[in-house]
C-alpha cells in the first residue's frame, strides 16, 4: 500500500477483467483442445491474445470504425486458424470458439473475494470486452457485479481517458473516489493519470505457467495484493 496515494475513500471498485478476474489462457486452451485435441492449445491461446492490441489499434487509428471485442476476436481468430492447420473449421465451429471468451473461468479467489469487496464497495467491470460478453461471463461464472461497464459504453478502449473518467461520470463521483483493480501496470498507470486510485493484483500465471509474469510492486499504486481475498483483507471487507 502507498498510503500517501489514498487521500480519499474510494466508493467504486472498477475491475479489469481479462487476466485480472478470469484466467483467459487456461480457458482458451481448454476450449480449442475440446474441438481439436492435437492442436497446441497453449500456443493457440497466446497467438489469439497477441492479436488483441493490434486489432484495437486499427480501431483507435480510424482504420476500422467502432468494433466490439467479440468482432475483433473473430477477425483475429480467422487470421490465426491457418497457422494451426485449422482453416477447415466450419462456420459453426468458428462461432462456437469465438464465444469461448464468454466462457472464461475465474481465478479461484475471485467469487469469494468479489463477494467480500461488494459488502463495502460498489463493484463493476471496466473492460474492453463488450457488454454481452461480460454479462454472459458473469452469469456463467457467478460473478456478483453491481454494474457491468465496458468500453462499448464509452466507445473508447482502455487506455483512453474516456474509459476511466467515464466510470466516475456514471456514478457522479470524483475520479479519486474510483479505484481501478487490475493485473496490468500499464492499465493502472493510465488510470492514475486520470486521478483514479489503483490496486495491483498479482496474476503470475496469466500467460500460462511456462511464462510467469513479473509481479513486482509499483509504489505508485495505492494497493498491491496477491489476489482478491488479500485485497479484501487490506480494505477491511
From TrEMBL:
Alphabetical UniProt keywords: Hydrolase
Enzyme Commission no: 3.8.1.2
InterPro entries cross-referenced by the UniProt entry: 2-HAD, HAD-like_sf, HAD-SF_hydro_IA, HAD_sf, PGP-like_dom2, S-2-haloacid_dehalogenase
Gene3D superfamilies: HAD superfamily/HAD-like, Putative phosphatase, domain 2
CDD domains recorded: HAD_L2-DEX
MF GO annotations: (S)-2-haloacid dehalogenase activity
Catalysis performed (reactions): an (S)-2-haloacid + H2O = a (2R)-2-hydroxycarboxylate + a halide anion + H(+)
Its biological purpose: Catalyzes the hydrolytic dehalogenation of small (S)-2-haloalkanoic acids to yield the corresponding (R)-2-hydroxyalkanoic acids.
Family: Belongs to the HAD-like hydrolase superfamily. S-2-haloalkanoic acid dehalogenase family.
Protein's recorded name: (S)-2-haloacid dehalogenase
